[in-house]
Design goal:
Layout: H1 7-21, E1 25-33, E2 39-47, E3 54-59, H2 67-80, E4 88-94, H3 98-102, H4 129-138, H5 145-162, H6 164-172, H7 191-204, E5 209-222, E6 225-228, H8 234-244, H9 264-271, E7 276-285, H10 289-305, H11 313-324, H12 329-351
Parallel strand pairs: 3-4, 3-5, 5-7
Antiparallel strand pairs: 1-2, 2-4, 6-7
Helix pairs in contact: 1-2, 2-12, 4-5, 4-6, 5-6, 7-9, 8-12, 10-11
Amino acid sequence: MRLAQDYTEARGRFLDAARELGAPVAHHDHPLTGPTGEVLATDVAIVGSPSAPNRLLVISGTHGVEGFAGSMCQTGWLAEGASIPDDLAIVLVHAINPYGFAWIRRVNEDNVDLNRNCIDFGAAVPENPGYDLLSGALVPAQWDAETRQASDGLLLEFATEHGFDALQEAVSKGQYRHPSGVFYGGSQPVWSQRMLESIARTSLTGAERTAIIDLHTGLGPFGVGELIASHPDQGGKDRLGSWYGEYTVPSEGTSVSADVSGDVLDALDVWVESPEVTGVAIEWGTVDIIEVSNALRADAWLHAHADPLGPEAGPIKAGLRAAFAPDDPQWATLVWDRFTEVTAEAANGLVT
């Protein structure tokens, strides 16, 4: 297994594998294009009967650049041609945020984090006073050594006073006041959110039991795939424990992730009308969290204050890719092995 070099290669490999297996694919074109003018789309392949009572939804690219790992897993699974029971269907959503995937961004075309966008925008948006305080330090107007040193000092002061966990929560749980900042949740449902809701309602209608696996990278120890549940009820917790054994819940303080506002798994729990929905994310660790954070901040600065196709872009995009999709065969193998383990456990849990 290996990661694709870019979005176009990843999409081509996915479509080729689906075609070879004979899996039907629906194409949902994005209104914008990639950095070289390439077509962007979310592609949905279904393996098995679309009306099967049990369905497993596997999503890649919620966070754009994290789609390199997710695409590899989805394509590899198709390429293996694994047989599934007659009462199970697998729905593979490839690159739900194709813009972020192609442009090597974690966010979408509006600088919106899809995993913070699934809130009720008709109500008051969640407050994040910690981020408000740190916004200028997180994404300063300049990205030179002097400015970065000063900004890092402010972040360190906050962590020293309030603790590292409080810093992580302030930075990453989601914010709705700073459109050019990091972890911005947006001001309305974005294209990727609307598309995911449409795909879920279309492909999962009529299912008696539904499992969801959302594929992520960037937090935790190198190559370790932590299973993260968002806000499961007791029935969901019982199923998660029975299917997977160990899993974590951010709101209970057991996860490498902060407890975020407006995440995809919570939204899918509402959109999917199955009597039983069991959702989990796999989060594979890559590099040190400071390196991940700095890569995100640099990318936000690039798109807010510089030219994403200019001379500064190359090193910044390389750093972001290294933080979320390491070019390391060992890492790719660890990702693949964990993916196949978890998908087998989900399929077994659905049909037993």
